[in-house]
Design goal:
Strand order of the largest sheet: 3-2-1-4-5-6-9
Number of strands: 11
Number of helices: 9
CATH superfamily of one domain: NAD(P)-binding Rossmann-like Domain
Mean pLDDT: 93
Bound molecules: NADP nicotinamide-adenine-dinucleotide phosphate
Distance between the termini: 42 Å
Radius of gyration: 19 Å
Shape: globular
CATH class of one domain: Alpha Beta
CATH architecture of one domain: 3-Layer(aba) Sandwich
């Protein structure tokens, strides 16, 4: 008999799949909220696990149609949400997904007597709040904090999946890096972060900032990617002002893409070093990706 039921929103994403696995392995009954159930069945490109067999129930819903989220939390003890817009998708906005989609889940959870809501926002939100993806996350965090719902907000640095994008560029033999690449980051593996998220279900902590065990400059993170591939690093540094100019022009013609670019520019411009947690190393992650080639 499983102890508690959890709704995982964003279950098909990088973090979501690791979280499904962690909850399931700790004996929770998992209801996965996804747009496309097929995505749960295969391993992801950043080694996120296939979780279709670990899920007890699959619920199909889309944050851009709030009626599909109604009743999602019925019979659930805990809601975990990493449902968020991380790449451009037509004209869908961060406000629709990160703020209003999660707010609809919160309202549903309040009406269904859910005991706890765990939400994944970002680290350094106070320094990057002028970026739309961050402010949309934080509008939801404000809703959560001002509600009567017991909650935890997880504030992670970059995920290994973002470093996976660097790895893909290194595979092509040449990398463009915004700025001097001297800012520091301690990225975290999805499985390490998932353990922190599930621990949060069992503790009473309002906010948890979290990064991985190793801190690198951005230059070092990409050099490691080249090394794992056995290639000589070839990095072209793009001055920040060019990034800003490109952002301005993109904003005129493609707002969704400009939103993603503005987050990348903001993150490249500052240190993102959160309290170090977890045990998995970026070097090993790159080696595993290289072994798939
Ligand atoms: N990546 C990072 O470095 C990082 C760092 C800090 C915080 N975060 C935040 O952590 C969260 C998870 O990040 P991630 O990297 O795991 O993202 P991800 O892989 O893109 O996963 C996002 C999840 O949200 C779902 N989703 C997107 N739009 C939706 C919609 N309209 N309706 C329902 N579900 C929708 C996605 O479904 P589909 O699979 O159908 O697309 C996916 O399951 C995001 O909110 C992100 O902003 C990320």
């Amino acid at each position: 008999m499983k102890q508690q039921k959890v709704l995982v929103a964003g279950a098909s994403g990088y973090l979501g799949r690791h979280v499904v696995k962690e909850f399931a392995e700790r004996g929770y009954s998992v209801r996965a909220l996804v747009r496309n159930p097929e995505k749960l069945a295969a391993e992801g490109e950043n080694l996120e696990p296939a979780v279709a067999d670990l899920v007890d129930e699959v619920l199909t819903g889309d944050a851009t149609d709030l009626s599909t989220l109604k009743g999602a939390t019925k019979g659930v003890d805990i809601v975990f949400s990493c449902m968020g817009l991380t790449k451009p998708q037509g004209n869908i906005t961060n406000e629709q997904v990160d703020h209003l989609g999660n707010r609809a889940l919160l309202e549903d959870a309040l009406s269904n007597g859910v005991k706890k809501f765990i939400y994944v926002s970002v680290f350094n939100a106070e320094k990057t709040h002028d970026v739309e993806v961050v402010s949309a996350h934080e509008r939801f965090v404000e809703d959560l904090k001002s509600s009567s719902m017991p909650h935890t907000v997880i504030r992670p640095t970059g995920f290994f999946s973002d470093m996976g994008m660097f790895f893909s560029m290194a595979r092509s033999g040449h990398m463009f890096l915004l700025g001097e690449g001297t800012n520091r980051v301690n990225p975290i593996h999805g499985a390490d972060l998932a353990a922190i998220c599930v621990d949060a279900a069992e503790k009473d902590v309002p906010e948890i900032p979290a990064g991985g065990p190793d801190t690198y400059t951005f230059n070092e993170t990409v050099t490691l990617a080249f090394e794992a591939l056995g290639k000589k690093p070839w990095i072209t540094h793009v001055p920040m002002w060019i990034g800003d100019a490109a952002l301005f022009v993109t904003g005129l013609v493609n707002k969704p893409l400009a939103g993603v670019m503005s987050f990348a520019i903001a993150v490249s411009s500052l240190d993102s070093v959160a309290p170090a947690k977890g045990t998995r190393h970026l070097k090993d992650f790159y080696r595993e990706l290289a072994a798939k080639d």
